[in-house]
Predict the 3D structure of the following.
Amino acid sequence: MNSVLIIITVLSCVSANERKVNHIISTLERAVLFFEVNYDRFNLDGVTGYRVLQALLEDTLKRWTLSGPEADSPYTKVEDLVKKVGFTVEMAIKELKLHQPAYFNAFEPILQVNFWTFRPEWTQTDRKLVYPKWRVKECFEEEDSDICMFQILGTWKDYRVNCLDTAKCTKLMTTLYCSDYSLSHQLIYFILAEIKNCTNIVGSQHPQSRNSISTQRLKKIFCTNMMEINLHIEKDGFPVYQRDLFLENIMLCGMIGYSDFYKTRWLEAILSWQYPSGCYVETGRSMHSAEMKQNAFTEHKRVKREDVLLDDNCSCHKTAVAVGALGSYLRFYGISQNVIEP
């Protein structure tokens, strides 16, 4: 009897996961169509989100574990999405070269088709690593994190060398108790350092300790606190102005293997936020409206600098991190057999 119950449970789990996969694919199809229509109006951050999506989908196809007649259709649909996203990203890159040449040149490596790679292993966050408190102010400005990433990528001004290590960036990117976008950008910094194989940085020493903190440890600290932030956002009812950060946290921590970010209830919320046109929207009249900034953000919390609003308040950045998060969910369900709720 126990064996029968186990089989039934496994089959039920597989069926539920296939339904999730189909819902994710349908949502991504609408988001990709939106990108195809508006690619020439997307900024670099928005295009990067779709390039990450392409990489996630390609990795999903390589490791696909769903089987049976019903699995053929979603596999074929994912193949079609990869082709559409890849083609449209290349078209968008041509526009970026024309309209954002300096910013494009600085971040060009992350738009390369083979830049993003993913590990097959899964891990989870550790609540013992939750910060006892968070800094009230952002730890650094977005321009500061951009410079640190340029140094990793080898695109910083006259220093055209990969993995440039500076004391300022080491201090900024290993500072503890950061929150919100400072925290997520700290994680991005070390993701890029690992991808670029910056061995001089991934084992960097924390400025406040004599002991070296490994990259894996730092990433676990960062993702644990990004999880805590997401749980707070959920508890507050997913305020619209915090959904961008919520989605970014899932995309980043999910793509580096933190499976506890793939909560079914979060997936259902993300699917429900999509606008009929396929995008994810902001509220208010304009991202640059002083009234919206005052109402939507508490003191010291910044608005995403690199965002563009399209028709119907469609947000390039929010749509980009949404497709990244959904692509990460799809990879999780597509390559993991008998997935159980994290």
